[in-house]
Amino acid sequence: MGLLDGKVALITGAGGGLGEAYAKLFASEGAAVVVNDLGGPRDGSGSDKSMAQKVVDDYSRADILVNNAGILLDETFAKAKEAN
User: Fold this and answer.
1) What is the pTM of this model?
2) Could you tell me the sign of the dihedral formed by the alpha carbons of 77, 13, 2, 63, in that order?
3) Strands 64-66 and 8-12, bridge-based pairing
4) Distance of alpha carbon 26 from alpha carbon 59, whole angstroms
5) What are the backbone dihedrals phi and psi of residue 66, each rounded to the nearest 5 degrees, phi first?
6) Residue 9 in contact with residue 24, Cβ under 8 Å?
7) Is residue 50 a contact partner of residue 60, using CB atoms and an 8 Å limit?
8) Which of 17, 65, 66, 70 has the highest count of CB atoms within 10 angstroms of its CB?
9) HEC-encoded secondary structure of 10-70
10) Strand partners of residue 8
11) Model confidence over 27-77: pLDDT tens digits?
């Protein structure tokens, strides 16, 4: 019996990285997981919906939302400069 049995979780950006880890964790705790991911490269160009199209069931509701999707287009954290 998992902590999230019977719950439906919608996770944006779950095709890889942290979103994928969230999806796997929630599923391991019993949640039905809906993956939302455009499948684009990290620079924000293009898309490949095949990553998210693996999940096609209709759950008719969402109990949990993890808004994880995002792409940093300007520079990486390691290259950021301290503001004056």
Assistant:
1) 0.67
2) positive
3) parallel
4) 15
5) -115, 110
6) no
7) no
8) 66
9) EEECCCCHHHHHHHHHHHHCCCEEEEECCCCCCCCCCCCHHHCCCCCCCCCCCCEEECCCC
10) 32
11) 999 999 988 777 666 666 667 666 566 556 667 889 999 998 876 666 667
